[in-house]
Amino acid sequence: MRLSDTVRSQFWSFAYLVSRRALSLMVLILRSSRSKDIEILVLRHELEILCRNQARPHLESADRAWLAALSRLLPRERCSAFCVRPETLLRWHRRLVARHWTYPHRRPGRPPIVDELAALIVEMATDNPAWGYQRIQGELLALGHRVAASCCRRD
Q1: Mean pLDDT value of segment 67-74
Q2: Domain span at 38
Q3: Is there a contact between 127 and 111 (Cβ–Cβ < 8 Å)?
Q4: Distance from the CA of 26 to the CA of which of 16, 58, 73, 101 falls in 20 to 30 A?
């Protein structure tokens, strides 16, 4: 007696489901207790978030930091335990690390010249209207002040 295609398809679907569950159980048994504990922490925290009685769970910055930090401890194949995509977790982690390692930044470009030197440039330009910015730069160099020509042109 030959089975119909739908029954055969259902059989293979059931066989796949049973084999997948059996493999998942074996993996769970072989995993370390540390990995299981971390996954439990993640799931408990997500449960806290979902129990806040909101239509859509709202993740606060502390929630994001907590989940991002725990995601680094959990093996990559267990990232399905999170309620967000792995790309989102990685973005949160990058922001967390960037916030921790951000140093005060300097402005790009040349540092500004001192006010006295800027006043000297303006004074030389007003006293000598025929001089161009390159001539003013040369005169400043003769006086011992090393500045760029573009600085003289701007001031």
Answers
A1: 74
A2: 12-100
A3: no
A4: 73
